[in-house]
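Entry type: protein chain
Record version: 2
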Amino acid sequence: MKRKYALALLPGALFISALAVGAAFGYRINLTQSLPLGIWQKTPDSKGAAYVEFCLPEGQFAALVREREYTPHGTCPEGLAPLLKPVVAQAGDLVVITDKGLAVNGKPLLTEAIREHDSKGRPLPAMKPGSYPVPEKALWVISTYHPRSLDSRYYGAISEASVIAGMRPVFVFNQREDYALVYR
């Protein structure tokens, strides 16, 4: 009888072990809607990375995210899980927000207004229309993969110091045909 229980628990134990070993080697499973689902890996250097894993800066926005449970609990200072987003602008770039969307260095990135309310109708503290030069040691992270992505549209630039790692896709699925991933 004990052997039967041990055999029943074996697949779960193997799965958890595989997750632990993968995490030790820098692999992460993305289950969010901001980027395609799948396995992502840390890159040796976050400088110039197309995607980054980062912690939201401590403060009012992170407190709002925690209060509304937009992300699960995790290892970041505010007790939130790290986020995975594409980098769309870095130091020296210019982000312009209008009531019709967002552009980086004159190239349209988003062609719809930034949402003023979340999916439950609660107000969001979105960035106001204007020009935002990206300062030194800062990044703008915005996902065009999902229209309700929690990104720089709502909290502005993030500090490079909040970046945990550069990330790259390894094996992804559920990818939209109109979305091109960068594998670097």
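Comment: The first strand starts at residue 27 and ends at 30.
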